[in-house]
Design brief:
Largest sheet: 4 strands, antiparallel
Number of strands: 6
Order of helices and strands: HEHEEEEE
Radius of gyration: 26 Å
Strand content: 5-15%
Strand order of the largest sheet: 1-4-5-6
Shape: elongated
Length: about 190
């Protein structure tokens, strides 16, 4: 009798464990990197959002010769969008997001000009998954957005918030995002950085 011996060519247990270990090491290296890249992309998108707000403020000033929603005449004034979002939205979009009425005159926008059209991604996402159309937020769902305006006309602003940093900035209007008291993991950032 002639018995042929069949040998199965396959991977040994050691070889499989080595491949799994290498995949685990590579995943351990890549996962934090992907998270950091995603965070930087969200910061960049949020800075673009702030830049659009600044441009809308400058367009408003070009039309009416004054900035909306500022009351002071000192060096600079800050608009706190965590508490003044609705007025900011109404003034720059010339519409009330809580109603279907278009062409509403708010905040000195007498001609009802839409200087900015707010997108859904710029509003606060509530815990229940609905969007709050009367509260602005950045890509991290942080509502601590501040617009700094030169109210004395000297071409410079001095932000006063704790997250704004020190010093004077050569600009008539700029913006920054402060720390979120409900989520300390959210980054703070400034347009002038």
């Amino acid at each position: 009798m002639n018995m042929k011996k069949h040998t199965n060519k396959g991977f040994t247990l050691i070889e499989l464990l080595m491949v799994i270990a290498i995949i685990g090491i590579l995943a351990g290296i890549l996962i934090p990197t992907v998270g950091a890249v995603k965070k930087q992309a969200n910061v960049a998108a949020s800075k673009a959002q702030l830049s659009n707000y600044v441009n809308a403020m400058q367009l408003f000033k070009g039309e009416y010769s004054y900035f909306p929603l500022v009351t002071g005449t000192s060096d600079s004034d800050e608009i706190d969008l965590s508490s003044e979002s609705l007025e900011f939205i109404k003034t720059l979009s010339a519409r009330d997001p809580s109603s279907s009425n278009a062409g509403v005159s708010f905040g000195g926008n007498r001609r009802q000009i839409a200087f900015y059209s707010f997108s859904e991604s710029e509003f606060l996402l509530k815990a229940d998954g609905t969007i709050s159309t009367d509260q602005l937020a950045d890509r991290f769902n942080n509502t601590q957005i501040f617009i700094v305006v030169d109210t004395d006309g000297n071409g410079s602003i001095t932000p006063s918030g704790p997250d704004a940093g020190e010093g004077t900035i050569r600009s008539s209007v700029s913006a920054y995002v402060g720390s979120n008291p409900s989520d300390a993991s959210n980054p703070t950032y400034k347009l002038w950085d």
